[in-house]
Design a protein that fits this description.
By secondary structure, this protein is of the alpha/beta class. The chain has twelve helices and twelve strands. α1 runs parallel beside α2 and α3 packs parallel to α6.
């Protein structure tokens, strides 16, 4: 067997990926009432035709108040489920790429305008809602002040994650990814920066990841065995007194015990300004540490836009999978070009093959 690379296949539970390239989840802010529409179909079908082994549908809210903006995709209503199922079915007619849905709740990051309008708090006239968080701490001086969740509300959020997971599974996705990063609600519980609770969901590290664990345990029970569960995790907060890579290792070991089969190693996001200094592949070291210390399949993400860097990450064993986001938006034929560069074959639709061969 030759050296592994980004074009080696990979088995993740019952899923076989044709290669180790994943198109990252990237919010489109284009839904209405959480429903997928023609924009989403065009966007995700293009992703699926890219040649990547897996695509991840953007952060999808488990409730209307769990959205970041009014344009967020959701999976909390019958109509959301119907629209998603139609989109997934259409994609699967033309592509064998594995389709993952990322489940999330924005928590205190919600009720804001679209990023291209500044991500400012919505006014009541614009349709704002009361945001929630583990503690009533706003993200910035100009942010919404969230309401501190009580135990009954926490149970409701847990139930929302489970119901949304069941809906997504019925809609035909191959896997679910729990979003525990980028300053959204589950990360807010995990980080000591945003979680100042004194009950069973706050204080110790085990308490701060209690809700995350409970959600994963219940989702695993509710899903068919052929539906795998992954997670995007925060390796560290890049802040004094924030969460650390050691915290993340403990979290991932626990997630692995309760049914998570891969993690995507991201970082930062709990506050807008941190000590983070980004550069190509700057988070790969986190993927490697999580892989080495937990044995779980890891996905590397963060400014991986160079073919050779991506190949080196997998060849070196630093991560099992690479994830491209902005690089794909800039060049939707990134995978084609990488395959040509490394003289590898990928799945290309018959309708496009003559264009691929000319590259």
């Amino acid at each position: 067997m030759g050296k592994l690379g980004i074009f080696s296949n990979l088995d993740i539970g019952p899923l076989r990926l044709a290669n180790r390239i994943v198109i990252s989840p990237m919010c489109q802010y284009s839904a209405k009432d959480g429903n997928a529409n023609d924009w989403h179909l065009a966007h995700y079908l293009q992703m699926a035709l890219s040649g990547a082994g897996m695509i991840v549908i953007e952060s999808t809210a488990v409730s209307s108040e769990g959205r970041i903006t009014l344009g967020d995709l959701g999976i909390y209503s019958d109509q959301n489920e119907t629209k998603l199922k139609k989109m997934v079915s259409s994609i699967k007619q033309y592509s064998s790429a594995a389709i993952v849905l990322q489940l999330s709740h924005a928590g205190r990051k919600g009720s804001v305008t679209f990023p291209w309008k500044g991500s400012k708090p919505l006014t009541s006239e614009e349709g704002s809602w009361q945001t929630v968080a583990p503690s009533a701490i706003p993200r910035t001086l100009n942010s919404n002040v969230p309401a501190e969740l009580d135990l009954e509300q926490i149970k409701k959020i847990k139930d929302d994650f489970i119901a949304s997971a069941i809906r997504a599974s019925r809609a035909g996705v191959d896997a679910l990814e729990i979003h525990i990063a980028h300053g959204y609600l589950l990360h807010q519980f995990f980080s000591p920066i945003s979680n100042k609770r004194t009950d069973k969901y706050g204080g110790s590290l085990k308490n701060r990841y209690r809700l995350i664990r409970e959600i994963v345990v219940e989702i695993r029970k509710a899903l068919p065995r052929n539906k795998i569960i992954g997670a995007r995790v925060t390796a560290q907060d890049w802040l004094d007194n924030g969460s650390t890579i050691e915290d993340c290792v403990e979290l991932v070991n626990e997630l692995k015990r309760v049914g998570v089969v891969y993690v995507c190693a991201s970082s930062g996001g709990i506050l807008p300004i941190t000590n983070l200094k980004s550069s190509p592949g700057f988070q790969v070291k986190f993927a490697k540490e999580l892989k080495d210390k937990t044995g779980i399949l890891t996905r590397a993400v963060g400014q991986i836009s160079d073919f050779k860097l991506a190949q080196n990450i997998v060849e070196s064993g630093d991560a099992d999978i690479i994830c491209i986001g902005r690089g794909y938006l800039h060049d939707p034929r990134w995978v084609w070009r990488a395959a040509t560069y490394f003289n590898k074959q990928i799945n290309v639709p018959n309708q496009y093959e003559r264009g691929y061969l000319k590259l």
